[in-house]
């Protein structure tokens, strides 16, 4: 799991989803939260540098050679409040951050909004990084959602596991870019609640494969003459 966290960090920087050490990632592991350490370049990060924090009991305690990310508080509070969450990705991706600077929530401009659990992506209020106030703002904006913007800051994406959290982080930045560019147009059509609900229903079966039909019995070259002989003799 520690190696997976590091791999996701390196990928999000290489893909342009994040820059430098500004983002952070956490993952649920049994009764602990694993989270990237503070101010540590991802290329030099080793598995034993990942901080470990208890999900229950002592609040804010951690194990590891390096301090956890300065954003550990909202990671921990979200995981404590949301048992459905197994991975959290926080980035300062460009378009999501631009909208967060403008303090704009993202409406249902694209059907992929349904992947986030509602009809919009809210922008949480502003508070300094690492504070209790920021954590409270984030949890409020994430109610019933798997992603949000943080005013003048960046974005958060949640998933049942690391892969899904990173997938939604990419989707959030994509929707943010599409919405930002659409603001230059005179007309924008926002999908209705019913249309988003219909998409969400479609997502419930997306990727499910119908069972393959059983292959028909094949007649081999050796078996064919024997069957023909039985038919001539009247045997079945």
How many DSSP H or I helices?
A: 7
Strand tally, please?
Answer: 7
Rg result: 25 Å
Number of domains: 1
Low-pLDDT regions? none
Description:
This protein has 7 helices and 7 strands, in the order H-E-E-E-H-E-H-E-H-E-E-H-H-H. A 7-stranded mixed sheet has the order 3-2-1-4-7-6-5, with helices on both faces. It has helices at 2-14, 72-81, 94-101, 132-141, 162-182, 193-203, 223-233, and strands at residues 24-29, 32-35, 51-54, 87-91, 123-124, 147-150, 154-159. The longest helix has 21 residues, at 162-182. Helix content is 36%, strand content 13%. The chain is of the alpha+beta class and 236 residues long.
In short:
With 236 residues, this protein is of the alpha+beta class.
Secondary-structure map with pairings?
Blueprint: H1 2-14, E1 24-29, E2 32-35, E3 51-54, H2 72-81, E4 87-91, H3 94-101, E5 123-124, H4 132-141, E6 147-150, E7 154-159, H5 162-182, H6 193-203, H7 223-233
Parallel strand pairs: 5-6
Antiparallel strand pairs: 1-2, 1-4, 2-3, 4-7, 6-7
Helix pairs in contact: 2-4, 3-5
Looking at this protein, list some descriptive labels.
single chain; alpha+beta; L-fuculose-1-phosphate Aldolase; 7-stranded mixed β-sheet; 7 helices
